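From the shared-data thread, chain only:
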Amino acid sequence: MKALISGILGQDGSYLSELLLSKGYEVHGIYRRVASRSRFDFHGQVVLHEGSLESYASLFSVVEKVRPDECYHLASQSFVGYSFEDPFSTLDVNVNGTSFMLESIRLLVPKCRFYFAGSSEMFGNAYESPQTEETPFKPRSPYGISKVTGCHLTRLYREAYGLHASVGILFNHESPRRGPEFVTSKVTDAAARVKRGEKVRLWLGNLDARRDWGYAPDYVEAMWLMLQQPEPDDYVVATGETHSVRDLLDVAFDGLPWQNCVTLDRSLLRPADIHELKGDASKARRMLGWKPTVTFEEMIRLMVRGGSNA
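Structure, as tokens:
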């Protein structure tokens, strides 16, 4: 089996590539020229291809060269806060990149199974909690809007062209490989430095925002399971539990007074925030046999320790 992963140098791409390699796949990945190829060490087991989500010709060329059996489209502008600062590039990269990838698959390898990385941000301030596959989307950011569009594009190619195209509506998932701009990494890095005796100043926004946080290696397994099903479908992947940013601080600092180093910064508040996201992964448990294996507390402590098991 041959797999193609866009965004392979990101958190999910790295864990997914390791999972696929362990299953005997030939793994190919797409990376951007500006991305660091040395962020993760694939030990020469992954074939990397330079490509741009903003160029149809670029993605078409990679798909034509690789001819994958499975394609995992993970790449996007994925930082919600930045999407408010530059909504144009967020929409351009995320929407066009998904459209270009789907069309390349349709024309070159229509039997290839396709995975689109959706997001809980598509729900926004949802009308119901927890959110399921049937919950209406109500996005509250350019990023969320771009993911809703990508989801509908994937469904269109599934229904109109018969592609085996599935959407994973993944709630927040973290790990020691999470990018430094995300709140979990900011907090766990600060906690680790405080425990080493350093003086730290940590700027945060909304401490009361609640999210359904899971462990990234668990979630990439769900991606793979989706493409092993006889029929394509959409699945929520979540723990079903929520924690606030205050809870995150409490676990990460483990009794140390985090209030001494945290400064509330209104510039970090989103123009349109989401109060709580909580997923119901009953369908994934029932249809995929999937369930989370690492608790919120275990994950945060692993991140504070520096990811020795990353």
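The mean pLDDT is 91.
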